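Assemble and predict.
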Amino acid sequence: MKLSRLAEETGVSITTVKYYLREGLLPAGRLLSRTQAEYGEAHVERIRLIRGLVEVGGLDVATVHRVLMVIGDPPKDRVRAVEAVHDALHVARPRTGAAEDVQERWAVTWARARGWTVDDADPLFEDLEEVWRANEEAGVQIDRQLMMDVCADAVERIARVDIASLPGESVAMARQLLLGTVALDPVIAVLRRMAQRQEALNQFAD
Amino acid sequence: MKLSRLAEETGVSITTVKYYLREGLLPAGRLLSRTQAEYGEAHVERIRLIRGLVEVGGLDVATVHRVLMVIGDPPKDRVRAVEAVHDALHVARPRTGAAEDVQERWAVTWARARGWTVDDADPLFEDLEEVWRANEEAGVQIDRQLMMDVCADAVERIARVDIASLPGESVAMARQLLLGTVALDPVIAVLRRMAQRQEALNQFAD
């Protein structure tokens, strides 16, 4: 199909398709002439994937680029493939420097106490420490230890199903882990609000 | 304190403080002269709250404005106060129209089957339906029914603690619900990735 048809098929503008091509998110079409290229089903599927990552996941173009590279050629080892998807999804946040302090590495200590296998250098720990630092600065009064344990108990149930439902082949696996991880974050957030409402009804009933 | 001191104390720029004043996010200081105003601890606390909502929660200024109005004067009834905070946090998304279709209101049916007390008009249901529509369009292959149940089981555990730890007085309650809801979303997302990694180690171990 022509570029205009590709745009129509996927519901994005021609400008957006050209932008994806220019940014290397979308492979070039097969050249028919000096000014016209032919696109196929793989292009349609790729555009839908990008839209999902951008619209549902709120990923920026640089992150989309990284994750597409990883799911195109993931590590054969499945544990390493999971790590590679997480690393590609990870967006470095500006650090205050406090997280560098050994005294502040409480999240690593917490995860070890939980029995998790921990890599000190994992940027997710810095994310956690940074989020809680910002929360406390904003005046959040939550028992951090309690809520970390409650949330970890909860997400372990989700992660068990996330991982158990992955296909065995590594390219398909990396793709589904990526989509599943990004896709369920907003579902979890919305369901938590609904569950809060049910709990308010239960706990505050006269 | 003067405006420059207020900025220094909270670590934001003078331009940002002026912007918050102009947008009505921050109450005006007490006028000392035609060109100078005096700010107090309440201003410091308010700026820290706004920073948390913007930086951790990723809220836009219009949403911050709405939630500040609600937590300043929440409904006395605590169930209604919870709803008011959720409504203020809610950002309307563009709809495809499909969610209007009665056939498509599967999320309402799902919640009823779960035993939740359901208001059909609750925009959170449309959010859920819209997120899953986008997920499926992007090529996500997840058993929707299974994952909705797994996620709901998980978030109910969190919501129970969210609600049980709220103070009784309605202004303090609304503030803590707001902050706790916004603050834990990223914590939950990061912990889920960590838990996925642990599960990959458990399930894929040779």
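The longest strand of chain B covers residues 30-31.
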